[in-house]
């Protein structure tokens, strides 16, 4: 009889699991309705269990309410436990009898233990394992048996003898079973919700992703294509139901298509590399016949399907190509500057010793004419070196605020003579053009080189147009044109309607010594010089050309914000007499030919000369002879210490020292304030002996700088 009643209650508890599963299908355990509705469910089942109890005597009954109510607290928390307990308490009090107090106590105990265990599991989910649940069931029912002390004394032992063994054997096991079933239901519900949320997130992400997404089945048919894929390529799911249609549409060239197909099949069949992302870059033909560079990332799923992501990298590739071109130009510029520096030292020796030889030859000597030819050749070589320096942005500039329109107007007559009568030169100049800060001579060089380049593209005649406009480049423009920077600019455009340039020529057009002309008809330095001058003016140049449609060069030069007149170079081409003088001069020069030449020039002119092969040796000589040294002739680039470092250290100890700087580069390492100070003069290599003597004379005869 006892066992039968207990089994009936266990059967009732099993039915609870079915009803609870139905509840979870409608409401998640995290729903605000779940604690209330599950409390009503558990309470109802507990009351039903009390309708079919094990009756010891009238008014003293036993059933499975302890399992149900403790489980309600365990799974649903205090709200669920409270609702189910209140429902059970009301019914048990209504039943009355000698076991009423025990019944009420058991209900309360079960609810409290269940709710307490709920919080324990929330803090440490490990306690939801079945061994711990068994312990939970034992604790509940040991407490239940202990509460039998509240029975009338004449009933305690009789009741304990009848129910102790069945309760401690069946009820904890029943607790484990019902909790296990209900926990599985909750776990399945969580997994189902997580899957739904994951699918929803995937759909939201894929529908709004800034790249194409496709899902390909094991049969090579597309199961999903997101909207951006269609926006990117123009193809719909109806137009390409499977991979074969995609290959036919995206890769019309049969050779390229077969190459891509073989790569894709190899990737698709790499089953052992599930969930490994494979990236390929391909060229895709769109529906509108345009072509795009696309990065395709594919990942094989464990169910045999393939997920692919398509990113348009056409613009990124263009920017990367531009960046590589800029890096290449910078590297070539560094090389050109280094070559120019070395050549300047050699030319310095050639020109200097030639001048010395000419000065010592008697008038009418047969070798004099030969030496003059050597000097002319050296001068021509020096011109080429200056072009290299311009390209490498290491040329000394005389900056001032100029009106670009006026420069064009003044130069137009000469340009017409240069380009020839068979070519028409037109100008379109913006009135009241803002001034630019530039070197007028170098701006003229830009115009001359560009017009000569256009002339060569118009062998049968045509039109060259020079234009000026003002523009403001904003951040949006810079994003599209990475070679630019935001700000106000004057744009100088030189265009022609000649034969144009192929794309591969445009990529290299600014490289030094690159030319498409016949051998002997060009040095390849014209446009390289323009590029260097523009970059040295903190501007930028852009070329656009189409074959048989002409070419246009646009040069962006920043508008002037203040007067840019700077220190003047002491080098000029004026009077060439040898000026004599007296005093002690320290020469610091690492190139032996140049050092010996300068020492000989100055020694022949009456100066006492000290020589140093590097910056540190110059400082050592200064330490020994500092008081009697009248002037320091310093090369800018030397081993151990540069000319600038020597200058700084000597100035600390001898504030009124006089300096002349020489270099095959420009003098960018000295700022304008230093160059304009009394006692600081510069001379550019290669220089002639008279020029060096004149510069030394001027430096020694400058008024002393006031401290």
Model description:
The protein is 54% helix and 17% strand. It has 707 residues and is an alpha/beta fold. It folds into 5 domains: 2-192, Arp2/3 complex 21 kDa subunit ARPC3, CATH 1.10.1760.20; 212-312, Beta-Lactamase; 319-389, Signal transduction histidine kinase, dimerisation/phosphotransfer (DHp) domain (Helix Hairpins), CATH 1.10.287; 400-558, Histidine kinase-like ATPase, C-terminal domain (Heat Shock Protein 90, 2-Layer Sandwich); 584-700, Response regulator (Rossmann fold), CATH 3.40.50. A 5-stranded antiparallel β-sheet has the order 4-3-7-6-5, with helices on both faces. Strands 9-11-12-14-13 form a 5-stranded mixed β-sheet. The protein has a 5-stranded parallel β-sheet with strand order 16-15-17-18-19, with helices on both faces. α20 links the parallel β17 (631-635) and β18 (659-663). α4 packs antiparallel against α5 (100-123), α5 packs antiparallel against α6 (130-146) and α19 runs parallel beside α20 (643-653). Mean pLDDT is 79; it is low at 563-575 and 667-678.
Feature tags:
single chain, 707 residues, alpha/beta, Arp2/3 complex 21 kDa subunit ARPC3, Beta-Lactamase, Helix Hairpins, 5-stranded antiparallel β-sheet, 5-stranded mixed β-sheet, 22 helices, 54% helix, elongated
Helix-strand blueprint:
Blueprint: H1 2-26, H2 34-51, E1 54-57, E2 60-62, H3 65-76, H4 78-95, H5 100-123, H6 130-146, H7 153-208, E3 212-216, E4 222-225, H8 227-233, H9 243-250, H10 254-268, E5 277-285, E6 291-300, E7 306-312, H11 314-360, H12 366-391, E8 400-402, H13 404-419, E9 423-429, E10 436-438, H14 440-456, E11 462-473, H15 475-480, E12 487-496, H16 503-508, H17 526-536, E13 540-546, E14 550-558, E15 584-588, H18 592-604, E16 608-612, H19 615-625, E17 631-635, H20 643-653, E18 659-663, H21 672-676, E19 680-684, H22 689-700
Parallel strand pairs: 9-11, 15-16, 15-17, 17-18, 18-19
Antiparallel strand pairs: 1-2, 3-4, 3-7, 5-6, 6-7, 8-10, 11-12, 12-14, 13-14
Helix pairs in contact: 1-2, 1-7, 2-3, 2-4, 3-4, 3-5, 3-7, 4-5, 5-6, 6-7, 11-12, 11-18, 12-17, 13-14, 14-17, 19-20
